[in-house]
Amino acid sequence: MATRSSTSPKKAVTKKAVAKSEKARVAPSPRAIAETAKRIAQTGTIKRNPLGHLLLEKMLRESGFRGGVSSSKKLLDAYSTDESIFSIRPQVVLQPKNRHDIEIAVSIIARETKRFSSLSLTPRAAGTGLGGGSLTDSVVIDVCAHLNKIGDVTIKKDKITFSCEPGAMWRDVEKKLKEYDAYLPPYTASKDICSIGGSIANNAAGPDSLRYGHCADWVESLDVVLADGHTYTLRPITYREFKLLIKQDHEHARIARQVFDLISKNEAEIKKNQPKTKKNSSGYSLWHVMSDGVANFKKGKGTFDLTRIVSGSQGTIGVITNITMRALPIQKNTTLISVPIFDLAEAADVVTKALTHNPINIELFDSLSFDLALKNPSFFKERIKGQDYYRVMLSMYTMYHIRFNRKVPEFIILMTLDEATTHKTPATDIVKDVSSKTTKARVVTNKYEAEMLWQIRRASYSLSKFQDPNKRPAAFLEDMTVPPENLSKYFMQIKKLFKDFNVTAAVHGHGGNGHFHFYPLLDFTNKTTPALVMKMADAFYDTAVKFKGDICGEHNDGIIRTPFLHKMFSKKMLDIFKETEHIFDPDDIFNPGKKVNPRFDIKGTMRTEN
């Protein structure tokens, strides 16, 4: 149920240490403070007061904070951007050494925000997010710098679990799991550069999510520092455990009581607003807290699971300090089927037929991605070593010149089947089922051809940068999802919108989920770009909703999608989300402006460099 770790008593700081800290910082003049306050006040809806940030280091050190605290220009510049289209300068960067440091930071900011309303705390992991979720104009707390330890892998009764801190990189966890012949099914295409904690905060997903779901589906428990500055262990609990929990007197118990009441009172509205697509990371996943329903939960069926709200919350309701997740044995003897789509109208039919065979994944990339790979073979030299590089490139050019007769298909669909599926239905029969007169599927038996196809699929975003080095692939439309049966009609409309706005974009995604990623190539040094982004977002998001889809499959809301959530959810549901956030975070100290109550001006905070 609830495990709480109390903040330790304040640790004394020597006069020498304080003097050294104060000497390193040049005290600003009153005039400089006033000018800074005026400048910051113009960038947000909350009146800024830089004095709180200036005093923060002293307060942290006096309370025993051991990690890094800095407001150096170089560091603030580095934390002003992530992989999104935004640039927002923080006031202070924290790099906690351990969980206790995070508890101290939360406690101080929760106390001091009553005096300095501009103080808030935004967790940041690897900074690979695409929605601006880790950007703030206040205090950023970097969990990757030190909180990156990986615990033991445990195998008990065929159940594989592991624990790690939030800053542990996915690639390092994957390497350790591989020693046990295991892997984490919701792995993302960006697994080489992202962290586990950031992936959970975004409720990320990847190719195998078609069968295995999002990160939230694989969480066993989360240690989270809540607004009272204490750490609590959140996990799924039974009704009996829930009744014992809510009798206790602490923050976890209060939150559990109030969330239960909120869901009970609004269950019909919550169910009505649950996205119809399989993938979604918008809003707070209240529909998954008691997935069997309130009535069944009271009868002892199912669980009450607050990790479902924390997963995907983007650090807006607490700071994750430790993670326990399940893993699976690595899939062996899989079969890859490649399906070139020359007639876009057939894409939806191919995908819906493929879904009947229970594939592990159905991925895709478009003609522009393939064309850019053909024209930039040197791009793959760093990714594929030795003689394998030449074999993989030979497979690519053979496919283009011989198999495709120098005609690039609209899409190439990749379908992965496990051994149980192909044992039940031979791969050759599945190939016949998904083929037509104009669409010819085939089993890929050459490992270099398979590697080539997956390399292009994974590199579509990076390849798109070769179109124009003076522009940037812009992440703001890249996460829309529609039911697979609407895939063809939806993408035909998307192509028309690209033409209307006179932009190009390489496309890749998760075809089995009807989930596309595309990044229009834009020039952020052009003053008209912010207005263009807003017009495009409005038109493209409307198109996704028109085809019964949603605007956010796995990259979360952040700055870019939070103001548009009214397109997906009712006003009443948006109010329920606000109440959820307020239950966890009454003083709005955690990453304000994301998920609910948008306060960052999209046009005003957009980056001005490519």
What is this structure's SSE topology?
Elements: E1 4-5, H1 15-24, H2 30-41, H3 51-62, E2 68-70, H4 73-78, E3 92-95, H5 99-112, E4 121-124, E5 139-142, E6 150-156, E7 159-164, H6 170-178, E8 182-183, H7 196-202, H8 209-212, E9 219-225, E10 231-234, H9 239-245, H10 251-273, H11 294-298, H12 307-310, E11 319-329, E12 335-341, H13 347-355, E13 361-366, H14 367-375, H15 387-403, E14 411-417, H16 419-424, H17 427-434, E15 442-444, H18 447-463, E16 472-473, H19 487-501, E17 507-510, E18 515-518, E19 521-522, H20 529-546, H21 558-561, H22 571-584
Parallel strand pairs: 3-5, 4-5
Antiparallel strand pairs: 1-10, 2-3, 6-7, 7-11, 8-11, 9-10, 9-11, 12-14, 12-15, 13-14, 13-17, 16-19, 17-18
Helix pairs in contact: 3-5, 10-22, 14-18, 15-18, 19-20
